[in-house]
Amino acid sequence: MARPKKYRMVEYVLKSLEFSPDNPTGEVEISMDELEAMRLADIEKMYQIDAAKLMGISRQTFGRILDSAHSKIADALINSKKIKTGNDGRCRVVKLMKCDDCGKVFRTPVDYTGHECPYCHKEHAHPLSSDPVE
Ligand SMILES: [Zn+2]
After folding, report:
1. Distance 118 CA to ligand 1 centre (A)
2. Containing domain of residue 26, as a range?
3. Shortest CA distance to 110 belongs to which of 89, 87, 133?
4. pLDDT digit string, tens, across residues 31-86
5. What is the 128 CA–ligand 1 centroid distance (Å)?
6. Residues 80 and 123 in one domain
7. Given pLDDT bands bounded at 50, 70 and 90, which one contains residue 132?
8. Residues 45 and 15 occupy one common structural domain
9. Which in 11, 66, 74, 82 has the greatest CB count within 10 A?
10. Are 114 and 99 within one domain?
11. 52 and 101 together in one domain
């Protein structure tokens, strides 16, 4: 029996991107969760355990995703391959909200338009991150 799909939460949606050398010898595809793992670990410099929590996955899974991403990037750079990004369907896009009352930061589905804080239940939360690009 197949295991139920576990969605990974990513904060940003990127347009499909392609980076290509002049004469690519092939291509690698970086999935959205790999991109998000690199963003959190390599750009934001977060600890893996904290980044994993943000994505709703275990630290082990986070480490595996990050390793996979680094291998693909290395493969592309060393072997002159094109890099493509895309969503393989395992990712859900979220946005960050911050409550003005209790100061907690939390994630909601990107299409959530309410202002309720899940911690203090007041209606004083507002989006922290800019709207993602489709
Ligand atoms: Zn609150």
Report:
1. 7
2. 8-91
3. 133
4. 888 988 998 899 889 999 988 888 888 999 999 999 999 999 999 999 999 998 87
5. 14
6. no
7. very low
8. yes
9. 66
10. yes
11. no
Distance from the CA of 129 to the center of ligand 1, in angstroms?
17
Count H helices and E strands in the chain, helices first.
Answer: 3, 7
Token duo for residue 127: 């989006």
Q: How far is CA 70 from the centre of its chain?
A: 15
What spacing in Å lies between the alpha carbon of 15 and ligand 1's midpoint? 33
Is 98 found in the same domain as 42? no
Q: Which residues surround ligand 1, an ion (CB under 5 A)?
A: 99, 101-102, 117, 119-120
Across 6-10, 20-24, 93-97, 129-133, which has the greatest mean pLDDT? 20-24
Ligand 1 center from residue 131 Cα (angstroms): 21
Q: pTM above the 0.85 mark?
A: no
Q: Report residue 77 as tokens.
A: 């750079």
Residue with tokens 């990107």: 110
Centroid of ligand 1 to alpha carbon of 94 (angstroms)? 18
